[in-house]
Design goal:
The protein is of the alpha+beta class. The protein folds into 2 domains: 222 residues, P-loop containing nucleotide triphosphate hydrolases (Rossmann fold, 3-Layer(aba) Sandwich); 116 residues, OB fold (Dihydrolipoamide Acetyltransferase, E2P), CATH 2.40.50. Helices cover 23% and strands 34% of the residues. The protein is built from 9 helices and 21 strands. It has a 6-stranded mixed beta sheet with strand order 6-7-8-3-9-10, sandwiched between helices. The protein is globular. The two termini are 48 Å apart.
């Protein structure tokens, strides 16, 4: 295991395209960090610099206290799993996993066998151990590629969107297998993905990237529940946060979602952007004190059997996720409420405010 430390790492293509902007941070030893963000945000370029496949324009990269900035990938002693499975065709699954271990003179035959059997079991590959890898589907071949890198036990393993190019059924199997894998092995892992479900499932920490910068970093629940800016609230979630513009009235939020004014402290802002996740809006079909009326503009079934409602409250449009048991029709009036603790407040530029709602 090794810490990965970046000091002022920058990557510029063609002298003008900034792919990664002056990053200084440490990925802790034995942790799983997901680099998460939309296409083109710089996450793959960052991972390729850590791997040695790209050289930084400026800055330094260290593994523990060893400067590796100008070392080749082979000199860095890392493992890598790419989007497309890299396997040795014409030999069995077991032989694929064993091949790099045969060159490690430090391992006894018994130790090699133990490593092979361990990853076969962890990744559900034991039934395929004697099968020619050429006869397997793409998802199973990707498992073989993962198993081979894990069995080597390098200091660091880098995953570059390993689930992207497999079918839906294989995606689910690989996610489950990878989850077991990261729990059982204490290797330092950086996992690049644009899929928030993968990141939320696998990561100890998420580093959320945008425009070559890490805009927020933390445990998945913190990133999701307390985004540091509007981008994080929008990008995470399916759909992302609702954002509602408010002009403060004597330091209070008035109207819209709120049947009673909500007073704020610690802010001098004239305008506030209120964010709330669709699943945190409460919806019912009967009126109640401090619940505001809303008209159902659209209802759709989404993953998990939930209904996604598009609601109009005066001039505001919001989305709410509700249980399947709440049956409503388009055009119907429902009633909406929210817990102030579920609100995130942003300034006019989209940065989270420290202001709090007074009870």
């Amino acid at each position: 295991m090794a810490d990965i430390r970046l000091e002022g790492v920058r990557k510029v293509f063609g002298g003008k395209v900034f792919a990664v902007r002056d990053l200084t941070l440490t990925f802790p030893s034995g942790s799983v960090t997901c680099l998460l963000g939309p296409s083109g945000c710089g996450k793959t370029t960052l991972m390729r610099m850590i791997a040695g496949l790209e050289e930084p324009t400026s800055g330094e990269i260290y593994f523990d206290n060893e400067r590796v900035t100008h070392l080749s990938p082979s000199q860095r002693h890392i493992g890598m799993v790419f989007q497309y499975p890299v396997v040795y065709r014409g030999i069995s699954v077991e032989e694929n996993i064993a091949l790099p271990l045969t060159h490690d003179k430090r391992l006894s035959p018994a130790e090699r066998r133990a490593r092979i059997e361990s990853v076969l079991e962890t990744l559900d590959l034991a039934p395929y151990a004697k099968r020619d890898v050429s006869t397997l589907d793409n998802g199973t071949r990707q498992k073989v590629a993962v198993a081979r890198e894990v069995a080597r036990q390098p200091r660091i393993i880098l995953f570059d969107e390993p689930i992207t190019n497999v079918d839906v059924s294989s995606k689910m199997q690989l996610k489950r297998a990878l989850k077991r894998l990261v729990k059982q092995h204490s290797q330092t892992i950086i996992y690049v993905t644009h899929d928030q479900t993968e990141a939320m499932t696998l990561a100890d920490e998420i580093a959320l990237m945008r425009d070559g910068m890490i805009v927020q970093r933390g445990v998945p629940s913190e990133i999701y529940d307390h985004p540091s800016d509007r981008f994080g609230g929008w990008f995470l979630g399916n759909p992302g946060m609702n954002f509602i513009d408010y002009r403060l009235d004597n330091g209070a939020l008035v109207g819209g979602l709120f049947a009673q004014p909500l007073r704020l402290n610690q802010t001098t802002e004239a305008h506030i952007l209120v964010g709330i996740r669709p699943e945190r809006l409460r919806v019912q079909t009967t009126p109640a004190p401090n619940w505001v009326p809303a008209r159902v503009r659209r209802s759709a079934i989404v993953a998990g059997g939930q209904h996604l409602l598009t609601l109009e409250i005066d001039a505001i449009t919001v989305k709410a996720k509700v249980p399947e048991s709440l049956r409503v029709e388009e055009g119907e009036t429902v009633y909406v409420a929210c817990d102030p603790d579920d609100l995130t407040l942003f300034d006019a530029d989209g940065h989270r405010l420290q202001a709090r709602i007074l009870a």
